[in-house]
Amino acid sequence: MKISVAAEPFESADGRRLVAALDADLATRYSPDQMYGMNLKPEQLAPGLGTFVIARVGGQAAGCGALRMLDDSTAELKRMYVEPKLRGHGIAKAILSSLEAAAKELGATRLVLETGIHQAEAIGLYRGVGFRAIDCFGVYAGSSSSLCFEKPI
Prior knowledge:
Elements: E1 3-7, H1 13-27, E2 50-57, E3 60-69, E4 74-82, H2 91-105, E5 110-116, H3 120-128, E6 132-134, E7 146-152
Parallel strand pairs: 4-5
Antiparallel strand pairs: 1-2, 2-3, 3-4, 5-7, 6-7
């Protein structure tokens, strides 16, 4: 399976479709007050501030992810998603690799993320690529449904 990952507009048709699918999936797992993805704004992904990537398999959009700089050295991963029928083929790892490279280009030396307690597959992925649990930060602090992770890069 040939996977390509490239920066694309957050508000592209494929970007909107993938983010809507992510939100629909999260809505089956969490109440609206436990869903934090909506706090990502397109302007936070402007050049020099962050990026949004889409993974493609055979030209078809298969997954996405974003990162935004929180400060001069920390980037936050956001909106990670892979179509359910394509999971388990390395697409999420390819997205993470692309976002890590983009974070380094932006000057980040640390990645952080939040994921939900009901997303065992995501938790396993993040731990498997070197993330370690940390106290939740920002809007996630005190959330009973959130787990936060970091990875030095």
